From TrEMBL:
Keywords assigned: Viral release from host cell
Domain Terminase large subunit gp17-like C-terminal: 84-255
Keyword Nucleus listed: no
Name of the molecule in the record: Terminase large subunit gp17-like C-terminal domain-containing protein
Organism: marine metagenome
Keyword flag Membrane: no
A Pfam family this chain is assigned to: Terminase_6C
Amino acid sequence: NGFSGVKVVWNQHPDRNDEWAREERSRVGEERFRREHLCEFIIYDETLIDPLKLVVLKGEDPLLRTGEVRWYRRPKKGRIYLAGLDPSLGTGGDYAAIEVYDGTTMQQVAEWQHNKSPVKRQLKILQDILKYIEQETEYVEGPHSITEIYWSVENNTLGEAALSVIEYTGEENFPGQMISQPKAMSSSRRFRKGFTTTAKTKLSVCSMLKNMVESDKIDIKSKRLIRELKNFVANGLKFEAKLGETDDLISATLLVLRLSDHLAKYDERIHERMAQGAEDDDGGFAEPLPL
C-alpha cells in the first residue's frame, strides 16, 4: 500500500543527550520511556505481569505432539509432575485447558486446550497425559517410586461434572495421586474433591504467579500461554482476559500453582523451590491490587 515505516529514537534528536534521558526516565518511568522514546511495543494496560517482563517472554515451539497435546519437554525419571485441568462445557465457547509442570523446577512440560471437547473427553485427555508420563518415566505408584505424579481439577460449576466423570471412570485409573483442597475446620459445607476457586483465592494465586514469572521462578514455554498473559488485565478487583481473548491456560496454570503450594508442605524439593521464590520476593514485591 506504499507505507514505509521510519523509526526515530530519542538519541537521534540533536538536543537530547544522556542527561536528558536520565531526567526523562526519572520523570515518566522506564516503561513509558521505552514505549514513547525507544519505540518499543510495551503493553499499556494494567497487566498482572510487569509489561517490561512480558516483552522478554518469547516461548518456543513444542518438542513433540501426542494428538492435540503439546509437549515442551519429555518426561524424565525422578521428577515431580503436577497436572491441572480447568474444565469447560465443550460447546464451542470457553476452552478447557490442561497444564503440566515439573514441580522441582516449575518448568512447563505440556499443555492442551480445546473448546469443543465434552467433559468426558477432557478427562480422557488428562488420563492419557498422565499415562504418557507414567510410560516415559516407568512410574510405579508406591512409597518407593522415584517419580511422583499429582493432579487435580477445578471443581467450580462445571467441575462438578468433571468429578462425576472421575468417579465413574475410577480415580485409581488415573496414574498418580489426585490432590484436593483441604476442608477448612470451620466450614460446614460437604467435602468436594479438587480445588474451589473464589475471588480471594484467585487474587492470592495470581500474586504468586506474578512473583514467580517476574523473578524467573517459573519457566513458561508455551507461546499461547504467553499471549494469554499479555492480555490478562485488571478489571476492578480482579484479573481476567481482555474482551475477545482467553485465560483458560492461565487458569490451569493457577491450579498447578495451588497444587505446588499445597504439596510444598510435605515435599522438600517443592518446598525449597517455593521458599526460594519467596526469599527473592523480599526486595520490594507488592501484591497486585487493581483499582
